[in-house]
Design a protein that fits this description.
The structure is a homodimer. By secondary structure, the first copy, chain A, is an all-alpha fold. Chain A has one domain: Farnesyl Diphosphate Synthase. Helices cover 73% and strands 1% of the residues of chain A. Chain A is built from 13 helices and 2 strands. In chain A, strands 1-2 form a two-stranded antiparallel sheet. In chain A, strand 1 and strand 2 form a beta hairpin. At the A-B interface, helix 2, helix 6, helix 7 and helix 8 of A face helix 2, helix 6, helix 7 and helix 8 of B.
Chain lengths: 276, 276
């Protein structure tokens, strides 16, 4: 199977699982479930669930059996996008080529759709935790990444440092919290469930998150609104930012090799290629 | 000890516990922890934790030992107030006599403070779940009450039905979800932890939530913004709403008697007296 085929195997499984879950929601009022579904089923790369499935697969575990945890990952990611897009935050009118949640349902419903998806993710985690201590620990890893020591802190920093003079330490905080924690989480969770080397898988996830964010910054240079954001290109300059992305990609590939995960090595290479 | 002294014993214990928790936060950026702390430590009746402690106490359990679950209850309640007060939702400038969170920290920070408190509550729940199956079940009860089958649905309904013709069934949905679930949760959690009669404690909590909401509606009649809200006074008329509150209070007192919880009987009477 090619890398692209393997990626799609994981991604399409996630799509089907999320669709099926939404169909089982018995949520009133209708506008609440509709607005949650709108963003959750809006497609996208599903990279966090793909990382989770691929790590479980590499570790020889039944990756399809952990779909609920993957769904929790994607619900948390989607909630964070809905809230980030709000006028008071990044004020983005479009997401994945479609009008953002608040452009369709209004700000109030978008805030509640985000709250609903976050709460739903935790209901999934607490249900999975009944399976035993490894699942409970995996749930705790994700909760930590989602919270005030993870993406909420990252988004707060992003707001704060858009207007002030900020340097490398602020950039690294932003990278670690806004992207790093939610890339680290699926790999640490998988290692925890399948008795892998949690620190090593975690390190791979953190580095891959940084690579993803570096190449994002490189891709976005010159885009609308970029002047207000703290980016690697601003902190390091273009040439140095490209060098950092290359060395980070190399480190990711070496780690994936050590972890016996060729698919994840290919994924790191794929991410690096985005910057070109 | 008088009822008021007993109430303050529970309430002040919660205050001290929440203060101590906030002091241990190591959250960056500072504005994120500051805005979370601002609302969490703004006082209030702490009625949900008080219900939880009182039920544990009545059941002969070590109520002080369950402070983390009580803190999770209050964090979830506080997050819901912060988001409800936002301009896009209820647009309230004041809360508990102080400027609301977004008036002090701005809308973006208020949204993130709410997200942070909700996530923090779930981190507490998942940590408590390590204690065993009763704690995990208690955590699940709270997660369900907090989510799309609880307060998020209640707030969504509150928005939706402010502008449309709505009747008794909508009012009961609102009561059950906006207030009922989070009054039921602490009592069901306590019963679950202390091996009490979960359905009976749950029923007491649901009825007490309805009593609280009925007396709220009676208290608020003629207040600013009331014309836009769906209330018991609108649906039933004043006299019938007062009758319903009285019979609901009687039912609560009888249930508290059956449960061997005189403090909670006094509390139901205290809530009923608010409407006068």
């Amino acid at each position: 199977m090619t890398f692209a085929e393997q990626y799609d195997t994981y991604r399409l499984f996630m799509e089907e699982d999320l669709k099926a879950r939404c169909q089982h929601w018995d949520v009133s009022p209708e506008i609440l479930s509709e607005s949650m579904r709108y963003s959750l089923l809006a497609g996208g790369k599903r990279i966090r669930p793909v990382l989770f499935f691929a790590a479980l697969d590499a570790l020889g575990a039944d990756w399809k059996g952990e779909a609920a945890l993957a769904a929790a990952l994607e619900c948390i990611h989607t909630y964070s996008l809905i809230h980030d897009d709000l006028p008071a935050l990044d004020n983005d009118d479009f997401r994945r080529g479609k009008p953002s949640n608040h452009k369709v349902y209004g700000e109030a419903n978008a805030i509640l759709a985000g709250d609903g998806l976050l709460s739903y993710a935790f209901e999934l985690l607490l249900k999975e935790a009944e399976k035993g201590s490894a699942h409970l620990e995996a749930a705790r890893i994700l909760a930590h990444a989602a919270g005030v020591y993870g993406i909420v802190a990252g988004q707060s920093a992003d707001l704060l440092w858009s207007d002030v003079k900020a340097g490398e330490s602020e950039l690294l905080f932003l990278y670690a919290n806004k992207t790093g924690r939610m890339f680290r989480a699926p790999l640490a969770m998988a290692a925890c469930l399948a008795k892998g080397d949690v620190p090593l898988w975690s390190r791979f996830g953190e580095r891959l998150g940084i690579l993803f964010q570096l190449t994002d910054d490189l891709l976005d240079r010159g885009a609308a609104g970029e002047e207000k954001r703290l980016t690697a290109v601003k902190v390091y300059g273009l040439a140095r930012a490209e060098e950092l992305a290359s060395s980070c990609a190399q480190e990711c590939c070496a780690l994936a090799q050590r972890l016996g995960a060729p698919f994840l090595r290919d994924l790191a290479e794929e991410i690096e290629r985005r910057k070109a």
